[in-house]
Amino acid sequence: MAPIKIGFVGLSSRGWASTNLAPPLLKSPLSDQYTLTAVSTSSAESARVSAEKYGGLFSRPVKPYHGSTEAIANDPDVDLVAVSVKTPQHKAALIPAIAAGKDVFVEWPLGRNLQESIELAEAAKQKGVRTLIGLQSWQTPLTNKVKEWVSSGKIGRVLSVNWIGAKPAEIPIWVPFHSRSPGDGDYGLDPNNGATFLSIPVGHSLSNIIYALGPVSSVSATSTQLFKETKFVGADNQPTGETMPSLTPDQWAFTGIMRDSGAILTASWRTGGTATKETDKARPTLVWLIEGEEGHIRVESTHLFGAVPQVAATHKVILNCEEVAITDHELGNTGLAWLEFAKGEKGNYPTFDDAVDLYKHLDAIERSAKEGRRVNVDI
């Protein structure tokens, strides 16, 4: 089968695409299944630099585009348009590609909100294109092992699920500290941009739970805002003295009923506590406990990024009182996603429809916290 030809929107010399999305494509067996044929960035100069860099890495000419994604979307030498830009730009970048009948990939979140995500999923469905969303938990060896243990009955019928996750203060985004990347401005602090503490860390964590254990039928949520402002830090991670009011909740919790098992899910996410000081090095960033009639699964971490298993693989995993070693795949979770997508209909990968289902969970959590009532998850 001929390699899938990728046109990459937002693949510059730095950022998530250059460090996590493109590098796996150079490794075997992905190097035989994909080839990069075009890039599109914000300016002609950055596009030229990117095309030269990746042309050398992929040992073939890479076409440079800039500005609107219409040009790269209509390039006959592009099969799949991969988008890695800020969330508010997702819709404008994806619509021309979908209209051109190209398969599409985009990082999570799909859209700025549930409605925009639904619109993008419907557009792709009407055009009949394949979609891939960057929810890396679907490829995480840890989450897949948990899913396997539960589905095979290793712990019997699931009775309850508990998830306690934390974003330590040392990760400088949202609160209490926020790092400004060049040209980033206050992007992550404006809730209208759709890149909030709820949509990203809570969303990715919830994706782990839903993928391993199935969706939630209803939620009763609570949120609070303990940090009224964020302190900006510089490249040295030290406060600059500049602050900005925080506009969104920074602590979330909810209880819910798992649709498939009927088990109670109790989940919470916190931020603000430190994780690297001597007095806090043993503070857990993740505790995930699944109790069944015949056993239990316990996942723990004190790693800075422990609450996002698709990023950090430093977890202590217990199955029925025995510790189990789980290691990452050499392709990484992003590479495994590319691998599954290349399998076509046989592949196991999250689509835009899966992104909408996750957004419906987040929307129900947000509405429940605002309205003080239990909300059904409409999926």
Written description of the protein model:
- GO terms for molecular function: nucleotide binding; oxidoreductase activity.
- InterPro entries: Gal80p-like_C, Gfo/Idh/MocA-like_OxRdtase_N, Gfo/Idh/MocA_oxidrdct_glycsds, NAD(P)-bd_dom_sf.
- Keywords: Oxidoreductase.
- This protein is of the alpha/beta class and 379 residues long.
- It folds into 2 domains: 126 residues, Rossmann fold (3-Layer(aba) Sandwich); 209 residues, Dihydrodipicolinate Reductase, domain 2, CATH 3.30.360.
- The chain has 10 helices and 18 strands.
- A 9-stranded mixed β-sheet has the order 17-16-15-14-7-13-12-9-18. A 6-stranded parallel β-sheet has the order 3-2-1-4-5-6, sandwiched between helices.
- The longest helix has 20 residues.
- The protein is globular and about 55 Å long.
- The two termini are 36 Å apart.
- The mean pLDDT is 95.
Q: What attributes does this structure have?
A:
379 residues, alpha/beta, Rossmann fold, Dihydrodipicolinate Reductase, domain 2, 6-stranded parallel beta sheet, 10 helices, 29% helix, Gal80p-like_C, nucleotide binding, NAD(P)-bd_dom_sf
Instruction: Give the total of domains.
Output: 2
Determine the strand fraction and express it as a percent band: 25-35%
Sheet with the most strands: spatial strand order = 17-16-15-14-7-13-12-9-18
Shape annotation? globular
How far apart lie the N and C ends? Answer: 36 Å
CATH homology superfamily of the largest domain: Dihydrodipicolinate Reductase, domain 2
CATH hierarchy class name of the largest domain: Alpha Beta
Q: pLDDT under 50 segments (min length 5)?
A: none
CATH architecture of the largest domain: 2-Layer Sandwich
